[in-house]
Amino acid sequence: AGRIRLTDSQGGDSPLAFSLSVTRAGSGEVQGLGGTEVDTVGRSRTVVAGSDARLRVDGVLLTRGSNTISDALAGVTLTLQNAEVGTTVGVTVAHDLDRAVKATQDFAMAYNNVLAFTKAQSVPGAPLASNGTLRAAMSSLTNVMLTDVAGLAGSPYSRATLAGVSLSRTGTLDVDATALKAALGTNLDAVRALFGRGGSPTDAQVSFVTGGEGTVPGRYAVEITAAATRGAVTGAGFAGTYADDGTADSITITDAGGKVSTVELRNGDSLDAIVTRLNADFAARGMRLVASDVGGQLRLQAADHGSAPAFTVAYAGGGADGSAQLGLAAGTYTGTDVAGTIGGHAATGRGQVLTGAVGTAVAGLAVSYTGTTARSAGEIGYALGVAGMMERVVDGVVRNGDGTVAVQNTSIETSITSLQRRADDVQARLERRRESLVRQFTAMESAISRMNAQGSWLASQLKMLQGSDR
User: Fold this and answer.
1) ∠26-31-35 over CA atoms, to 5°?
2) pTM over 0.90
């Protein structure tokens, strides 16, 4: 209604009180603003205390701070909708075999499309009819379907044909859905290893992380010479209650990413109060650090293993500095990375992950070791699978720089440049020859002209002689 309204943005029975005054820089009154009215009727808001979700999974009581729970069952996320005390809800977890079959059929369709393209380009008169590279690439893809997958020795499914994926008489790839479903239902892990790149460790504390482009399929022994640790420091001598003057001291922790947490150390604080205050501030600032009570002493520890997640501790006295009573020295604390070898080859540790060195058979092969002692940790079997083998064939064809297509393009461009250079050279020689012939022709014309002049002069002289004889 042509008036300015200021409204409290917070609800509740106790409205925010405020006052409004109007001034101007110069003298005189502000015109156009009438009196002000303050409406003290607040808006009601119901405040409900939050609570954690509680449920039992297979008889085990779980308490979580969210209704989306992904750590109760491996690979399963539960979303809680309503509380029904005393009611048991059955959850059936099963593999979607139809989806797996559909994915395999899509793969076969893509293969058949490449085969059709190759055939269409290879007929007489086609753009690539005389190009052997195209046929060689298609032959390499076909060989993948006919050979055993390296690294799967002893597996019941070592080649695609054993799982219902085979080549027809015309060269197309066919999928026997019934046979594939039966294989998936009988030994899912073996079929997964057949088609996908992956690793299978023999030790429970070793897990496969990834493989590299240069990793050679096979089985490799994992030797741990040093387990990863987390950066940590534990105080000593704390009496249980922080004693200081009336002005609080502070402890400042800075993580490797530059995030800083500063928490007060107040007179009368218990160890539990200090731990709670630290953890709350760590969580608020997104710092991967944990404070805990270990035997009545303050312990600070990185949440992650390795040398990268280091942290620094510093103190500031608010008056009389009482921080020494924590027995936790200021300084930088860091963990150590895992160390060891894979297949006897050098490997680099980062946190709990050990990765094979470049230039070795295990280049790029990464495993995670969660153990706490140095020891022989079994073997890791690495297989490319049908997909990995296909990927390597395709990468060899389309890879930038040294792939087959890139090399062919470079060769063709080199030939074009060479032919153009030869054509330019021939053209230059022809031009020089033309210029030479033109000069010769011009000289000949000039000589003929002079000869004609001489002939005319001689003829005239002969006539004069003949006339004098009479």
Assistant:
1) 115
2) no
